[in-house]
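Lab meeting prep.
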Amino acid sequence: MLVSKDSIQIRFKRKGHMMKRVLFLCTGNSCRSQMAEGLINHDFTGQIEAFSAGTEPHGLNPRAVQVMAEIDIDISNHCSDHVGLYEDQPFDYVVTLCGDAN
């Protein structure tokens, strides 16, 4: 099910100002998860706090940086994190972006 930005904003207004935390997880944490983190943090600033990590981080893919720059989102300062960095942190949602990251 797709959720629109408007429906997420309505839900946050009803529940107050607590930000939801989401972790995007994939194997390399080099492209898809980095782009998802950038999009959410850009479009939902102050509402959702997004992070990304990988089970076997490979480093940030320069093509992901280039594609995001085309829509005026700068992810060039992102780094490829291992999921272990976040194991003691609470998240409202963990979204896996590939089958190997389950």
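Slide two material, second protein:
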Amino acid sequence: MISSKDWKAAVEEGRFNVIFSVSAQREIEKLEIEDALQLTKDIKNYLETAPLPFGKTRIKRLTGFDPPLYRLRSGDFRAYYRIVSQDVVILAITHKKDSEKYLRKFK
């Protein structure tokens, strides 16, 4: 679990490492090239520098999950992730129509 000091320092320095789970890697490889490029661009732009939600953003902390689970919106796709120390671990990538089914399975 990330402490408040750790994430504040990481956000200030913009130094989070993004790690894809094996299943997330498989899911992104199945996407069409344009969708995969947009998703990876958004992951790099948002999650490497500021993976926590702030104001109106593409990032949302989902309720009812412990440890916290976050979602990044990118076009028609959603990336679900957790923050562990200085790492952002991408757990899954789903199409927005399959998101509820994934979250029910995840709880």
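Talking points for slide two:
Residues 5 and 22 are 29 Å apart (CA to CA).
The domain at 4-106 is CATH 3.30.2310.20 (YaeB-like fold).
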